[in-house]
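User: quick one, fold this
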Amino acid sequence: MAVPRLASVIASAVLGLAFSAQAADAPLLVRIGHSAPLTGPLAHLGKDNENGVRLAIDELNQRKLVIGGKPVRFLLWSEDDMADPATAAAVAQKFVDAKVNGVIGHLNAGTTIPAARIYSRAGLAQISPSATTVKYTAQGYNTAFRLMANDARQGRVLGEYAVTKLGARTIAVIDDRTPYGEGLADEFEKAAKAAGGRIIRREYITDQTTDFTAIINSIKAVKPDLLFYGGADAQAAPIVRQLRNQGLDTLFLGGDGIHSAAFLKLATDAAEGTVASLPGVPLARMPGGKAFERKFTAKYGAVQRYAPYCYDAMMVLADAMQRADSVEPAKYLPMLPSTDYAGVTAKVRFDERGDLRSGAVTLYTVKDGQWRPLETVW
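Assistant:
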């Protein structure tokens, strides 16, 4: 009876050693939080962002990186913040409590600002691929970074372009009262006035408004040369449709919030002639834009807007981890300010606030149902 028992002990020991060896070889799981509106009128942008991160994570895992002497495997944890500040704050706290290794997001200015405070208190690195509000990085958090030009830059370019290139002298402005929409409209108004334009009407809606009759009647009464809208595509499209239905040929101008395939689909023929900006250069002219587009569309369909920036954000996080030889935020966070990464979108370098050093803005117009680049301003 002793022999079988001895055999059993030996077998257990062998299994234990095998399990230990397997555990030692198991990859270190690195959880990356991502948050954006995944439901509601901005879901097309949120899913685009999510897929940009996912594509980067898939490629990083294929590289079989070793950090801190261990093989690592990146995992995406994506949460719906519904473009709502309170929900975004709850999501941010969830990420912090779960000790994710880094965060990419949020999409909107209004969600990014409250979330940034929570990440900062926890010392958790956050890279926003799309929140352009000046306030985000102006809060002074050393955890906050972004990958595109902010609204001070974008608004200035739009205001000057409206007057000097589009010839607008009388201008009406509408914004949706979100931090993004109102902030961009304020910067636009300031620049347009400085360039010699005159703001003859300033109107407000909310990002939940669905009836634009009163606003359109107000604009029709003053007949401006140009109408600027600070807000997103879901509301810009019905506004421009109603403008055209009322027989107004007023130029329609907006920021990156309206530059999307969804705007073209929702606005239909009324989109023709619309002008909008987008931080950065056109996808086809990005350093890695063409290759990225081929890979992305093969997996997820057409690029909506910010997916390349999300891809770069994930790659920048991974680059900082590799340089620090650690996936712990406290150890790799100090490496982010010295980032010098050749990304899909641009050469990524941050200034002292965490903003991108090279802030190009490109103007586009809708022609034959497609966004066509007009001019890039550096």
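User: anything notable?
Assistant: Residues 2-25 form the longest helix (24 residues).
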